[in-house]
Specification:
378 residues, alpha/beta, Rossmann fold, 11 strands, 47% helix, binds NADPH dihydro-nicotinamide-adenine-dinucleotide phosphate, binds magnesium ion
């Protein structure tokens, strides 16, 4: 089953499945693009297609006429689809919209390949508790976490001294602070290494994505914030590293192509053959690493502070960031405003005592709602 089947991760997943006809796709789930969802359902011969936006039901039905795929739409239909029996679910809805469906997809005995990092940022404790309660095997799909998961190879974090996530640095790596402040949407969407959905691409441009990923790693691997670090690595070949107490460092490398971590999840515990370009280190010539520049990329520090403060601050940070990115994409604010607004939202939540640590899905949704209501663009 693929949640977010029409997105960047969903399409990459479909490319892999298309080469492996032994997969039977129980359901595909999308947001509002009925035509794209129907095309995906036909391509994968999915048994069922569910669209979040009810208004798209007629178009979905029409586009699926004559196929064997059943169709439904609306929030309840998405939850129902997420709960259908299957062995593995790819959870790749973007943002907080993925929270309820991804939780609903945590069904007993199933494997979840998780791309939706916002679930772990916004509701990490509740999510991991539900994973354990339901006996779900969680496979991280985000490339950095996937590399770390493979380096850990089943060990817990007790012998880990440090986990390092690499960041490409995005399109603004060499830009001045003033240029980043005023950057337009097209520049922020021009990621040098990765082809991704719009939200995660904007997050990457300001290094907020790396901040969200630190919080994601903290939840996934139950690791203390002090043991997590970020290094900028413009080639995006080394994705994540784990240093162990004996001095050994294990790293995960591949060309920057999400199909590799997706294939790892789909094939787990075996290896799925892919036609992805192979890594050629001699042709690359060199790999470089540098410390992140917090002055030009303030979003990263905001996320680190939220992670260290804990409570509900990651939930607030995530909510404010989603709204700020939306406003930026709509041309309403400058790029530099994103981090500024997120910082203000975190300060306000602390000042008003609104950021209580959410232990359940309902509590996380509550903190998220308050942060969204309080959020205001300049
Ligand atoms: P996209 O924006 O490309 O795709 C998002 C998907 O979610 C689409 O299928 C969209 O449907 C669907 N969707 C949106 N809203 C809803 C909703 N309310 N109910 C059901 N489905 C919905 O995002 P990406 O594929 O880039 O990213 C997905 C997730 O994976 C994000 O959390 C991202 O951070 C994470 N991720 C992505 C990476 C990448 O390379 N793209 C890398 C690592 C992590 P529709 O098309 O109809 O809007
Ligand atoms: Mg990533």
């Amino acid at each position: 089953m693929i949640l977010g089947a029409t997105g960047s991760i969903g399409r990459s997943t479909a490319d892999l499945i298309a080469d492996h006809p032994d997969f039977i796709v129980e359901a595909v789930v999308g947001g509002s693009d009925a035509a794209a969802l129907a095309a995906m359902a036909r391509r994968l011969k999915a048994r069922h297609a569910a669209l979040h936006d009810e208004r798209g039901l007629a178009a979905l039905r029409a586009a699926l006429a004559g196929s064997d795929t059943s169709a439904a739409a609306g929030e309840a239909a998405v939850i129902e689809a997420a709960q259908r029996p299957c062995d593995i679910v790819v959870a790749a809805i973007v943002g907080i919209a993925g929270l309820k469906p991804t939780f609903a997809a945590l069904q007993p005995g199933r494997t979840m390949a998780l791309a939706n990092k916002e679930c772990l940022v916004s509701a990490g404790s509740a999510f991991m508790a539900e994973v354990a309660r339901r006996g779900v095997q969680l496979l991280p799909m985000d490339s950095e976490h996937n590399a770390i998961f493979q380096a850990l190879n089943g060990r817990d974090a007790s012998s880990v001294e440090q986990m390092v996530l690499t960041a490409s640095g995005g399109p603004f790596l060499r830009w001045s602070a003033e240029a980043i402040e005023a950057a337009d949407v097209a520049a922020a969407l021009a990621h040098p290494n990765w082809s991704m959905g719009r939200k995660v691409t904007i997050d990457s441009a300001g290094l907020m994505n790396k901040g969200l990923e630190l919080i994601e790693a903290q939840a996934l691997f139950r690791i203390a914030p002090e043991k997590l670090d970020v290094v900028v690595h413009p080639q995006s070949v080394v994705h994540g590293m784990v240093s162990f107490s004996d001095g050994t460092v294990l790293a995960g490398l591949s060309v920057p192509d999400m199909r590799t971590p997706i294939a790892h999840c789909l094939g787990h515990p075996d290896r799925m053959a892919t036609s992805c370009r192979r890594l050629d280190l001699a042709a690359l010539g060199g790999l470089t690493f540098e410390a992140p520049d917090h002055a030009r990329f303030p979003a990263l520090q905001l996320a680190i502070d939220a992670m260290k403060t804990g409570q509900g601050l990651p939930t607030v940070l995530n909510a404010a960031n989603e709204l700020a990115v939306e406003a930026f994409l709509a041309g309403k604010i400058k790029f530099g405003d994103i981090a500024r607004l997120v910082g203000r939202a975190c300060e306000a939540a602390l000042r008003h005592g609104e950021a209580k640590s959410p232990q359940t899905l309902a509590e996380a949704i509550g903190v998220d709602h308050i942060a969204r209501e309080r959020f205001a663009t300049p």
